[in-house]
Each structure stands twice: as C-alpha cells, then as structure tokens.
C-alpha cells in the first residue's frame, strides 16, 4: 500500500466534521490551560483600545480620520524637507566647484569631467538632495503610525469596500505593504488563502506608490502644483495633491479589482478574521532611528547604485553622435510624438523605459537626459531645478501626468520577477505589466487632450 | 566547526515574534504592529557561550492547517527541515487564543519551548501567568519574556542549549480527541509509521490525512520519495 491509497482510505474513515472537532478540542484544551495557569486580577477587557477603536474604525469618522492622518504624514514630510533639501543642494553645488577645479588642475580630458562630474556626480547628488530629506521624515512618521497599531484599523475600514468589489479584505494589508515596496507586497499576498483573490491583490498592488516613487511624487508636487502659493499654504497644497494622488491610486485599485472580479477572475469573496491588535506605544527612538537611517539609507543606496551606471550610460549615449544627432536624441525623438500625446515628452518616456529596473532612477535619468543637452552649467537651488524642467517646456500638466504615469505605470523589474515567482505564470505576469500600463496611458492621454482642448495650456 | 543549533520561531501574527528575532540576533528585520508582516523565512545567527545558534523567523500564522501559503511555509519548515528547537511565541495578553497554535506545534514536533511574550503588558493588565503549572501541563518548558525590554533572554538561551544537548527532555502532552477520532487514528497510524518511520510524527500525519490535507500529502511525496523506498526496504526486511 502506498501513501496515496492510505490517503483515500483515511478519507473514507473520516467525516466532514472532523476539522470542526479537532478545532473544538484545541479550543477546549486552550481554555483549560488558561483556567489552570493564568489568573486575571483586573477585568479582561482593554478599555483604552476599545475606546480608540470606536473612533478610528467608526463608520462616520473612520475615513475622514484616515485621510487626515495620511495628510498629516505628508504635510510633516513636505514642510520639513524643504530647508534641508535646499541646504543639501547648496552644499553639493559648492562641492562641485571644487571637483571641477580639481579636474582642471590635473588636466583631465573634458569627456572624463563630463561623465564623472556633470553626469554621475550631478545626477546622484540631485537625487540625494531631493529624496533624502523627505524620506528621512516620511519613513519614521509612517513607522510610528504602523508600530502604534493604526495600520490594521486602516485595513478594517477598507475591508468593506474590498468585499464589495469582490476582493479579499486582507488585500488592504498587502496594499498597505505596497506603500513601502511593491515587490515585497507581492510576496506578502501569500497571506490570502484563495488563489483568485490573491491574484487580484497581486495585479493591483502596483497602484499604490512605493518608496521608489514617493520621491518623484513629492518633488513634482512641490515644484509645480503649488507654484502660486507661498509659505505654509504651499506645503498644504502640495500635501493635498499627494493625498489626492494616493486616493486616486486606491480608487483605481478598487476599480480594477471590481472589473477583474466580474470578468477574468470571477468569484465570491471568502470570509476571514482580521485581528485588531492592541494599541502599543512604539519605542520612539528605536523606530525613528531604525526607519530613518536603515530604510532611507537602503533606498538611497539602491537609487545611487542603479543610478550610477545609468548616469554613465545616459551621458555616453548623449555624447556619441551619429551624424549630427546623438544616440540619446534619436531615442528621444523617436519616443517624443507618443510622449506628447500623453502630455509628456520623449525624455520622460525614455526615463520610464530605462527606469524599469527600479523606480528610484526615473527622476535621475530624466535629469541627466535634460542636463546632457541643456546649456545649464550651474544648479544651486531647487529653483534652478524647476528651471531645468521649464526650459524643456514643462507645464503643470506635464508635472501632473508625470506623477500619474509614475503612480499608474507598470511595476518595476523586481516586482515583475516576484510576480512571476509567485504566480508561476507568464500570462498573469504579462497582465500585471499590461493592465497598469494601459491605464497609465489612458489616464494621461485623457488629461492631456482635455487640457489642450479646453485651452488650459 | 560544528553545525549551528537551528532554532525556529513560530507564533501568531503580531505577538512580537519579529521583535524577539531581532533582539536575539541583533538583526534589523522590519517589524510592524500588524498581521502578515513576515511571510517568508528570515535567518540570523548569534553566538552564545561558545555555540552558534541560527534563528529562523517563520511567517506568523493563526494555525498550521496549511490553509494558505504562509501557513504551509511555516508548517513545512517545522516538520521537514526539523529545527533542533522550535520556539512558539505567544501573546501573554491573549493566551486563550494563542495556545491553539502551541498545541498544534506540539503535535508536530517534540523539542518545543513555549515563549510567553509581552509579559510586561500582561502584568499591567493584571494577568498573572504561572509558567510552572503550564510547563507541567504541556510537558515542555514555558518561559515568560518581554522581547521589547529583553527580559528573560538568558533563561531562554540556556533552555535552548539544554534542549539541544539533551539535558532537558521534552515530553509534550499529546492532545486526546474523541473516541471516534482516536479509533480512526489507531487504524491508520501503524501503516503510516511503516512508510515514514520516525521521520515525522505518525500520529500527527494520521490526523492530517484524516482531515484531508492534500497539500501535506503532496509535500510528503515530494520530500520523502527517496527515503520512502529505503524505509520500505528496511520495513520489508524487518518483516522477513
């Protein structure tokens, strides 16, 4: 007899209610153990957690509080990052003068100065100045909320909507994970039992911005969306734009889940229990230091690591000429008509294509592309950064569509690899690429055409 | 260089498993106050009194019935990779629910330490836990911990060492089910023991097969194929 036969035999012996009986016995024994070994001197209920839950998960206040919390996190990030960003940019600009002087001193050839200083150094230091301060504020603030126990309440609030669109409530948790990293979130969908609902969570995870995209969103929101405001109001408007973008991403998540659950992934949502852990006072310094140093540093290292070779590559293709046009310009010109249709341009399209390995490098590639052709020699402050974009004919629509495309477009290479590993299906991996791409193109196309038609730009 | 002592950490989500793992190994795996933070395995090594310990952080799960992939990952590690010691981390403030998982682990493997974490929080709430009574009832060491404040670590590491070197022998008290279920187990367990020997707990496998756990069946087929032949050979020689 082999084990397969034994299995069939066991199936004949047992009854369908066996699992219930097993679980019943487990609970009985657990209860018994508690009665024997545990004494409760106060009342069992945790009144603080209950009272807070009544507010945070209330049907009326739950959502407004959620949006306010999200807004607060971004407001602190944006308002706090301004000054350190400018200081960093000034510092790197000051250092660049010395680097250039050094290259002149050793009589280095022009191309070497070009590749290393104007390409590599400038590209990467810009990434550091614009991305490091917001990340160093955003991660710890978010981590404090997370460690306090607020995230499961967010999941609880979202649960009802996910059910309504035919998805699994736990998708709200994997979505929350996506705010950190989509690649990790795709693995985290393992907590969803049903394969159908897990696939929904995988296919839509990309619609929440990850670490690699926060930087891009924050930079363009503060440079373009709040240009006519000053001081505190400016940060407030920027915050509003980012919160709006995040909410839009979540709406797209619901919409795509709903469409898929009515078409390719039909089915009824399964039930599950969502545990709401007690609120715990986070270890403040531990959390702040761990998340700001470790996490910001990790993201930055990744950005610089991928950006450095990309910087050199960009500089090289921008400076090798075929005839009187550089290779970069050939690619840009080829992509430009399509980019224009979406309210973007050839450089932006190229940056997104070359940025497939990691979203962190889209912005640096774009900057390097612009810098390699522009006549701009000195960039000392964030105002100069905006000048680079304005010189390339950017408007608020370009910035908005850039942000939307970043929010909605195909997942990064790592995420796609993880999707393939988790689903073991080329078809679904391709769909995970195709669905967001089509949506990103459609949304930006509609906005660009409407804005042109109505004469807004 | 001897092999490190492998210690797996199992537990419900949000019981501070990852906090304990980080505190023990000095690693910086990200922790969070919500379910599902850890879905794959993380490993970290630490030296203690001249021995190397390798800690493996399993995904946090409510049960080990292989309902979902993370439950399977945790279950497979415990039964097939056979860590030297398995820690089951429980939340002191909701023991009644948490004991479930500990009881399931005790059916699967012998060398288990039940770690009751968040003991500081429990004491604040007026929950008193008598770990001696629980040790007696469960047949394996029960240790109270506070991973956040690093309370109870020395006792834990000593206990791990003494289990690994055989000074402490774990004799988990097995669950007894209704007469009907026990009779079914009694019928098929001998065959199972014949096929898998003492590689897995035959009582536990019997129960899982009765419950129709096909995923486990596939896993056994996949992982024990070679050994099965060998064992059947031995088995038939024994009969001859």
From TrEMBL, chain A:
Matching InterPro entries: Fe2_transport_prot_B_C, FeoB_GTPase, Gate_dom
Superkingdom, natural source: Bacteria
A Pfam family annotated for this UniProt entry: FeoB_C
Ferrous iron transport protein B C-terminal domain sequence ranges: 242-290
Membrane-crossing segments per the record: 54-76, 126-151, 172-192, 212-229, 236-260, 312-335, 347-373, 428-448
Residues annotated as signal peptide: none
Domain (Nucleoside transporter/FeoB GTPase Gate) ranges: 130-221, 301-425
Keywords, alphabetical: Membrane, Transmembrane, Transmembrane helix
The keyword Transmembrane appears for this protein: yes
Name used for this protein in its record: Ferrous iron transporter B
Species the sequence originates in: Cytobacillus citreus
Automatic annotation (TrEMBL), chain B:
Keyword Methyltransferase found: no
Domain FeoB-type G residue range list: 4-166
Keyword line: GTP-binding, Nucleotide-binding
Protein name: 50S ribosome-binding GTPase
Organism of derivation: Cytobacillus citreus
Coiled-coil residue spans: none
Membrane spanning residue stretches: none
CDD domains: FeoB
Record-linked Pfam families: FeoB_Cyto (PF17910), FeoB_N (PF02421)
């Amino acid at each position: 007899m082999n084990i397969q036969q034994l299995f069939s035999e066991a199936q004949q012996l047992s009854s369908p209610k066996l699992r219930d009986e097993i679980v019943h016995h487990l609970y009985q024994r657990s209860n018994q153990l508690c009665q024997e070994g545990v004494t409760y001197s106060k009342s069992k209920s945790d009144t603080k957690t209950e009272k807070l839950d009544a507010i945070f998960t209330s049907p009326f206040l739950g959502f407004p509080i959620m949006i306010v919390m999200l807004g607060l996190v971004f407001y602190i990030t944006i308002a706090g990052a301004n000054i350190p960003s400018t200081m960093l940019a000034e510092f790197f600009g000051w250092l660049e003068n010395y680097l250039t002087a050094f290259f002149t001193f050793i009589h280095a050839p022009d191309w070497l100065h070009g590749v290393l200083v104007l390409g590599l150094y400038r590209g990467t230091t810009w990434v550091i100045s614009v991305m490091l301060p917001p990340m160093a504020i955003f991660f710890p603030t978010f981590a404090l909320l997370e460690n306090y126990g607020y995230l499961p309440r967010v999941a609880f609030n979202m649960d009802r909507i996910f059910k309504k669109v035919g998805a699994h409530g736990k998708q709200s948790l994997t979505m929350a994970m996506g705010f950190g990293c989509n690649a990790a979130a795709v693995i985290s969908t393992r907590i969803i039992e049903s394969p159908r609902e897990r696939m929904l969570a995988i296919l839509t995870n990309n619609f929440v911005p990850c670490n690699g995209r926060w930087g891009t969103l924050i930079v363009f929101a503060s440079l373009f969306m709040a240009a006519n405001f000053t001081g505190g109001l400016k940060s407030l408007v920027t915050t509003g734009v980012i919160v709006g973008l995040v909410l839009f991403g979540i709406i797209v998540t619901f919409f795509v889940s709903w469409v898929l659950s009515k078409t390719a992934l039909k089915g009824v949502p399964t039930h599950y229990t969502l545990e709401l852990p007690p609120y715990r006072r986070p270890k403040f310094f531990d959390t702040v230091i761990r998340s700001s140093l470790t996490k910001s540093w990790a993201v930055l290292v990744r950005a610089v690591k991928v950006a450095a070779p990309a910087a050199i590559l960009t500089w090289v293709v921008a400076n090798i000429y075929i005839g009187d046009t550089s290779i970069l310009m050939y690619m840009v010109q080829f992509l430009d008509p399509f980019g224009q249709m979406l309210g973007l341009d050839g450089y932006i399209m190229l940056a997104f294509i070359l940025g497939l390995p990691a979203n962190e490098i889209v912005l640096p590639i774009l900057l390097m592309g612009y810098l390699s052709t522009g006549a701009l020699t000195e960039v000392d402050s964030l105002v100069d950064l905006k000048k680079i974009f304005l010189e390339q004919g950017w408007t608020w629509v370009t910035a908005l569509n850039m942000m939307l495309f970043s929010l909605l477009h195909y997942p990064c290479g790592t995420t796609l690899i993880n999707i393939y590993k988790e689903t073991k299906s080329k078809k679904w991996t391709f769909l995970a690429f195709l669905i967001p791409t089509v949506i990103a193109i459609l949304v930006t196309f509609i906005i660009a055409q409407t804005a042109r038609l109505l004469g807004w730009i | 260089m001897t092999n490190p002592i492998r210690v797996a950490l199992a537990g419900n989500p949000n019981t501070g498993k990852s906090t304990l793992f980080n505190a023990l190994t000095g690693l910086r795996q990200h922790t969070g106050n919500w379910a599902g933070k850890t879905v794959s395995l993380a490993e970290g090594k630490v030296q203690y009194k001249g021995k190397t310990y390798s800690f493996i952080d399993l995904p946090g799960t409510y049960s080990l019935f292989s309902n979902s992939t993370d439950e399977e990952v945790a279950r497979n590690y415990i039964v097939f990779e056979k860590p030297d010691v398995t820690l089951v981390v429980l939340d002191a403030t909701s023991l009644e629910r948490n004991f479930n998982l500990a009881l399931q682990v005790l059916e699967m493997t012998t060398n288990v330490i039940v770690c009751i974490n968040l003991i500081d929080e429990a004491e604040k709430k007026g929950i008193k836990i008598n770990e001696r009574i629980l040790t007696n009832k469960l047949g394996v060491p029960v240790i109270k911990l506070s991973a956040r404040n690093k309370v109870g670590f020395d006792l834990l590491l000593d206990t791990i060492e003494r289990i690994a070197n055989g000074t402490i022998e774990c004799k988990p008290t097995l669950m007894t089910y209704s007469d009907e279920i026990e009779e079914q187990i009694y019928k098929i367990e001998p065959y199972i023991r014949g096929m898998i020997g003492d590689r897995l707990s035959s009582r536990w496998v019997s129960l899982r097969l009765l419950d129709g756990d096909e995923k486990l069946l596939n896993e056994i087929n996949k992982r024990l194929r070679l050994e099965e032949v060998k064992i059947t050979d031995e088995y038939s020689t024994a009969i001859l």
